[in-house]
Design a protein that fits this description.
Blueprint lengths: L4 H9 L12 H50 L3 H15 L4 H17 L6 H12 L17 H8 L2 H9 L6 H8 L21 H16 L6 H11 L7 H4 L4 H14 L1
């Protein structure tokens, strides 16, 4: 019976997720209750999905590490570990859509080409792994393909960096990889998500992956002069979304040779 605007505001401040004033329409009330119960069930389903997914990843990672140790005893190399991890996670991404795998590969190729000769091989391998897995948190969205509101999808999209980090956070050796995944949507001016980090507070690898991610998306939005368009948009956002020093690592030649020409040949 409290219909004042200040009453509704106080209700939300106290933790309510909706506010229905009297007199109410029974049909409207029923529809809103159904909406909230559907959202609640969707969140429960998502929690179960994430829990099952994390268990699978931890199990697969443990198996990979054990097999890697066995191989290392014989060969003295750890390259199979990275290769196997990428295979496992990319196969998981295929559960959503093959386009996620293609995008992941594009971002990884761009990052590795841009930093070639600038960092040591170990750092480049970490960047390759993080770039390939930067959207692994999108796995949680597949549960929402059926009977979920668009607003909930958007809300969950903004959570995918944290969820990507949570998939890896049980593996100590992948801690920095997980941080790059968490922060690849941060912005140089502090307007990004999930933590609103700014400038050099954003991990270097995450900044590079964010730039490559932006380029890979930009070239998909036009059909002609894709590399030129991507660089134009990148420069327009330099100093806002992206670190000018790192933007200098990328150019149209890298985009063309790494992605566009390679696709034409295939």
């Amino acid at each position: 019976s409290k219909t004042g605007e200040e009453d509704e505001t106080k209700g939300f401040e106290l933790g309510a997720v909706d506010y229905i004033a009297k007199p109410f329409n029974p049909a409207t009330l029923l529809a809103r209750v159904k909406t909230h119960t559907a959202l609640r069930q969707a969140r429960l389903d998502l929690q179960e999905w994430n829990s099952n997914l994390k268990r699978k990843v931890i199990n697969q990672t443990g198996i990979i590490r054990e097999k890697t140790r066995e191989i290392n005893d014989i060969t003295g190399t750890v390259s199979i570990s990275i290769s196997s991890l990428l295979t496992v996670f990319l196969n998981m991404l295929k559960m959503i859509d093959i386009s996620h795998v293609n995008h992941a590969n594009d971002v990884s190729k761009l990052v590795c080409e841009a930093v070639k000769g600038r960092f040591n091989s170990e750092t480049i391998m970490d960047l390759k792994l993080a770039a390939t897995l930067h959207d692994i948190g999108m796995l949680s969205l597949s549960q929402h393909k059926i009977n979920v509101m668009a607003t909930c999808k958007q809300e969950d999209y903004y959570l995918h960096p944290q969820r990507g980090q949570s998939i890896l956070d049980e593996v100590k050796s992948l801690e920095y990889i997980a941080l790059m995944i968490r922060h690849h949507h941060e912005a140089f001016d502090g307007a990004g998500f999930p933590d609103g980090l700014k400038g050099d507070d954003i991990p270097l690898g995450a900044q590079l992956i964010g730039i490559a991610d932006f380029i890979a998306n930009a070239i998909q939005s036009v059909s002609e002069d894709q590399a030129e368009y991507a660089m134009k948009m990148l420069i327009l956002n330099t100093g806002k979304l992206f670190n000018p020093k790192l933007v200098a690592f990328f150019n149209t030649s890298i985009i063309n040779e790494t992605l566009l020409i390679a696709r034409d040949k295939s």
